[in-house]
# Entry
Amino acid sequence: MGQINLIVGLGNPGEQFKNTRHNIGRETAIEFQKKYGLPEFKTEKKYLGEISEGKNGSGKTISLLPNTFMNKSGQSASSVVKYLKIKPKNIFIIHDDADLILGKTKLSFGRSSAGHKGVESVMRALKSRDFWRFRIGIGGKRNIPAEKLVLKKFTPEETKLAKKMIKKTTEALETTIKEGPEKAMNEYNR
# Structure
């Protein structure tokens, strides 16, 4: 078996959280699954989430949507990582980032959580910060606390921008899987 890549779309399960800023990671993972023809997501109790897996070359790509709610995402991610013995450098977490303005994206490795509860949960569960993070900007000019901002829905104008960031992230994910994250970084961090 070749390399296993794990993509984790952070967010909250349930209709009421659709299109909230906090769920842009989850929605990006769903978009990636559709765009690249991965199978439909299936609920996997042992992983506390929904899984879609497909082959890529000699390896495979697994996309995970934790069903644990944001601040317990690590429980779901670590169950997949431990069961399939996935190396941290092959883990790609997609999440919202209130420190980046809406429209900005950044791919980083081994950085602190900067207070993001979902990322903190993953770091605690994996006992490591050495994984890749696709950070999607949701911040704005209004000074409202992050915990209020993240559950706000996008306005129609912001939705256009959010869709562009989702598209950019799915393309960067494809580059990452085919050619490596360093290659994706050049475009994505612009």
The domain at 4-188 is CATH 3.40.50.1470 (Rossmann fold). Helices lie at 24-35, 73-84, 117-126, 146-149, 156-179, 181-188. The beta strands are 4-9, 42-44, 49-56, 59-66, 91-101, 105-109, 132-139. The two ends are 35 Å apart (CA to CA).
